Amino acid sequence: MPRMLDVSDEVRAEIGDDEADRLLAGAHAPDTYDCTSCRTPGNSTQEATSTVLFVGDETAVLAFAHTRCIPSQVVPVSEEQLLGAVRSISQTQGSAPAPAPADGLLLTSAPPNGGSPNNGLLNGGSPNNAAAVAAPGSGQPAVLGITCGLVLCGDTGHAAVVVEPTGPVGRPGNVSGEDEFLSLLAENGFQPVLDVDKAPAQLPGWSVLMAMGQLHAILQPSATGGTSAWWQAHQPLQVTDAWRIAAGRQSEVTMYAAPAGTIGRQPREDLLRMALERAANQGLLVAAALPLAGT
Known about the structure:
The protein is an alpha+beta fold. The protein folds into two domains: 5-94, no CATH class; 107-291, no CATH class. The chain is built from six helices and 16 strands. α1 (9-15) crosses α2. The longest helix has 16 residues, at 79-94. The chain is globular and about 60 Å long.
């Protein structure tokens, strides 16, 4: 039976025309699947379904997702990461699924020891789910820390990522020590937060990549067209079920950003909310709603 599959040009280029045509005809595509983004059931005979190809150094795994969650694409991952995911899937199919983190737990990326500077905003990643950016007037790079949590806007809980560098972030060649992190984000469309209780507007061109139920990257428009990674996890960041459900329901993630030392690593969502409100009152918080999408 034919499937309602989307096979992107980049996936087709990786798997070949013959295999892509067999998938579309229903030869190798399952009727039902667990969406690789939101982890809820899908049916390729009844709803639009994306083919997502995870490619490691020597291994490739084809997965399926609701098209509303993520478009058909190729996702490069490390070989170790991909083999770990395959082992996890095999264990889950043969036994009880591993327990998910408790709702309300904040999951924060740990800043790495070291890294290499990048120009301006982030273009690439570094270990432990944090990323190096240019630190003005310093021989060491600053690092972007990422915290995931639910933030109430009115009566609705929004899946949020909070970005805070470990030090000042400057433009290429800046040796003054001036922190231009918020200025750089403002130039890219992020708006000052005056009231945390009000959800920010969506920012065109930016998006958040969720795959295999984990946070992989924050994507920005590329100067050459398409998108590129602004932040990319060295290892995918685990999120809670509540966070993932909220992101899937709203088809977007709210990104907040503040200068170094403003938010801190808060252990609970209520403390994170208080820190965001303090930052907003001081004029040190910007935000935007980023759709769930990919390259």
